[in-house]
Specification:
single chain; Four Helix Bundle (Hemerythrin (Met), subunit A); about 130 residues; mainly alpha
Length: about 130
């Protein structure tokens, strides 16, 4: 096994064995990273690449939304659903309009949610 394959196998195993809260955090971080790339592509005038990164961000938000279990905490689940729907709308508008305001709006929501999940993750770690 070469070094690249070993690194990929390690990364895959660490994701598969990660606690759910860590996976959620990683998804938010990925979405924000993709938004950075979409904004960079915009500044470079590469709208095809910009669309690619917006689509990748939308895929993460869709996955987060689809994985909501509102039966656990109905009010929180419903609020998260509304926030994800808002992000999806803003990303779609950004894709269609070629403007960055939708990217900024989605980023603001996703950044706030990431910060909240990080707080929950830290709290859980201190409870162990």
């Amino acid at each position: 096994m070469n070094t690249h394959n070993a690194a990929q196998a390690y990364k895959q195993a660490s994701i598969e064995n990660a606690p759910p809260i860590k996976i959620v955090r990683m998804l938010y971080e990925g979405a924000l990273r993709f938004l950075d790339r979409a904004e960079l592509a915009t500044s470079e005038g590469d709208f095809k690449l910009r669309g690619h990164w917006i689509s990748r961000t939308e895929a993460i938000v869709s996955e987060l939304r689809a994985s909501l279990d509102v039966s656990v905490a109905p009010e929180v689940g419903q609020e998260l659903d509304r926030l994800y729907e808002y992000c999806q709308h803003e990303l779609s508008q950004a894709y269609l309009s070629q403007e960055c305001s939708g990217l900024s709006n989605a980023r603001r929501v996703l950044r706030s949610l990431l910060d909240a999940w990080k707080s929950v993750e830290v709290h859980q770690a201190t409870q162990l």
